[in-house]
Design a protein that fits this description.
Two copies of one chain form a homodimer. Chain A contains 15 helices and twelve strands. In chain A, the strands form two sheets. In chain A, strands 6, 7, 8, 9, 10, 11 and 12 form a seven-stranded mixed beta sheet that branches. In chain A, helix 12 links the parallel strand 9 and strand 10. The relative contact order of chain A is 0.11. By secondary structure, chain A is an alpha/beta fold. The first copy, chain A, is elongated, with a radius of gyration of 25 Å. Chain A starts with a helix and ends in a 6-residue tail after the last strand. The interface between A and B is large, with 38 and 37 residues. The structure holds a DNA duplex.
DNA sequence: TATTTTCTGATTTACGTACCTCAAAAACTG
DNA sequence: CAGTTTTTGAGGTACGTAAATCAGAAAATA
């Protein structure tokens, strides 16, 4: 039978109240007594019944998710997952609020964070945009005792507690590896298209990509990165122009969003002349393109995992628990048309 | 505030006892009253507090995991995950027992299942071996009212409730796709090495592999599959022999275990002459080989996910809940050296 | 020694649900 | 209509923990 607090009290020869004081770090227990209780705990292998504890506490955690009002599929998916979490919030004793901010706008983000800090929620998750203002706002949040997690795009060097997202440098390296191998020994040019070099995740992907391209595939030369602000229409235009200009493009890495436009542009190219394409995020568009053969490989980060991980970490931080790195690592999924979920 | 049973009772104008009778399907409620209560439940959006319910029930689920006494890394990992689940079992109100059976032995497996049935656990998970005896044993388990889940290797056509594992046909297809593309337009032979064609998962992988090879890569000819019973020593021998015999082998698909031996054999080959290699399962050996470049891509099924999914499904079955397919789908992970976790 | 301070014990209530009993009311039966 | 059966109500206990109160014991201080 699983030991309970009563068993510990009996085993340590103290009262229930004292056990409670030790377990919950309340004051008023002599050092020797505390040790006696702790020994009983480890002897009996007691573990707190979290369900019962939460039931007794009745406390709910209030979290705020700050989301850029982007309309690309991936951000929509993230929002959906946050909303799914909100609907589960009753069962998990969390209360989640979503705050919208304009995308790629450091000042607006910092302002939003400051406004949120005034409400004193237990935790905040946000998609980082780089900027000194944001760093400062994060510092203020932490000062107020609020747990802070970055989501999808990180803000290294800031005082955030955790980053819930993938290793974007590794993603770029993986993309390069796939593209290099899929082009099968041929020589030619590689085009890379990003949303914006102002966003850290895109920059890191490109860095990783270029590194592996340089190291392992000298036969391929990468054109200067194109930026299309994750806008499908702009992306279509840019890609079409590039393909028209350089008939020797044999590979394309789409490291941002706006794949709808890119797919559109690729469809115009005759089948034999189509480059090998690696893109990010499994969405309706990219899934169809993968099945059709317009995209050759997809790198994906699981939005659901990221959101749930962020919530788990926030909760843990509020309770003063350490982050279990292995559990919170978000994987880079690779999808070919054969292993699409 | 989250509604409770009290709120429902008040809203429906009935007593707590009646609400309880409706919620737990107990008899003795008139049809009209039952409907009134159900309406109140949906009106208020009541959801049972599972934690509190479990606390009150105090029931624990008893599950048995039947594992082949294989010593390959993947099976060891599965066992480790089962043990990890056992150590968590207190918190999750499950009691898990592990039963060992000799590998690849349908009769022994069937006997073990029959012995287990006598104990009347709530659920059983096992790694299937094909055979009429096993089908019959599963039927007997189900007759006794025991939930049954197959793990890693399935037993289609049997009365098992669920399969916790990957789509092995898709895995084979994915391997073929990778191998085809990584060999980059060259012509040559492809070797495939399996554990045993008696195990369904290996057979399905091979089927998928051959299908895509035939469809998409006619320039590659696949040699007859070699079987090495997941034994490293035997695998090393077989692979060495094949490579010696056919200098035009440019690709190798290791679809079973025993990769330690295969890696050993590959190391003997001069770097330029090494085939492209796709293997299964991320273990210490394969991870090192991937980093070193001896293996080019790894397909992986997450042992932890599989075990946890099996337990979740067993629990659900005992409680009469449906399986949420999307949640229980085990993904085929692809790892290149750049996205290893 | 007297007094204060610090520690500890005993006990209680609450969380939301399950499950039980007993009595009373309502609905049927003939 | 009386008698029987079915349905409902009222109330309690339990699960394991949190959190509080208050009294009493022990230790430290004056």
């Amino acid at each position: 039978m699983k030991p309970t607090v009563h068993d510990i009290a009996r085993s340590a020869g103290v009262s229930l109240a004292t056990v409670d004081r030790v377990l919950n770090g309340r004051p008023g227990v002599r050092h020797v007594t505390r040790e006696r209780v702790e020994k009983a705990i480890s002897n009996l292998g007691y573990v707190r019944d979290v369900a019962a504890a939460n039931l007794a506490k009745g406390r709910t955690y209030s979290f705020v998710f700050v989301m850029p009002s982007n309309d690309n599929s991936f951000m929509i998916e993230i929002r959906d997952e946050v909303h799914a979490a909100m609907s589960r919030s009753g069962a998990e004793r969390t209360q989640i609020r979503v705050v919208d901010v304009p995308p790629f706008d450091a000042q607006a983000l910092a302002d939003a964070l400051d406004r949120i800090a005034a409400d004193k929620p237990d935790g905040v998750a946000f998609v980082a945009v780089e900027g000194a203002q944001v760093h400062a706002a994060v510092a203020r949040l932490k000062e107020t005792g609020i747990a802070v997690v970055t989501l999808v795009s990180d803000l290294p060097g800031s005082e955030r507690d955790h980053f819930a997202g993938i290793d974007n440098n590794a993603a770029g390296r993986t993309a390069a590896n796939l593209l290099g191998r899929f082009t099968g020994g041929r020589e030619g040019r590689i085009a890379a298209i990003a949303g914006s070099m102002l966003v850290r995740d895109h920059r890191e992907r490109l860095e990783g990509f270029l590194a592996v391209m340089g190291e392992s595939f000298p036969r391929l030369s990468v054109l200067p990165v194109m930026e299309a602000r994750d806008d499908p229409a702009l992306a279509a235009e840019v890609v079409s122009a590039a393909l028209g200009h350089h008939p020797d493009i044999i590979g394309l890495y789409s490291l941002g969003a706006g794949n709808r436009g890119i797919v559109h542009a690729l469809r115009e190219v005759s089948e034999g002349a189509r480059p090998v394409v690696v893109a990010h995020e499994l969405t309706r568009t990219t899934r169809a393109a993968l099945a059709e053969g317009l995209i050759d490989a997809l790198l994906n980060q699981d939005a659901g995992h990221e959101v749930r991980s962020a919530i788990r970490v926030l909760k843990g931080k509020v309770e003063g628990l350490p982050v279990i790195a292995a559990q919170e690592r978000i994987r880079i999924d690779i999808f070919l048309k054969d292993n699409m979920p």
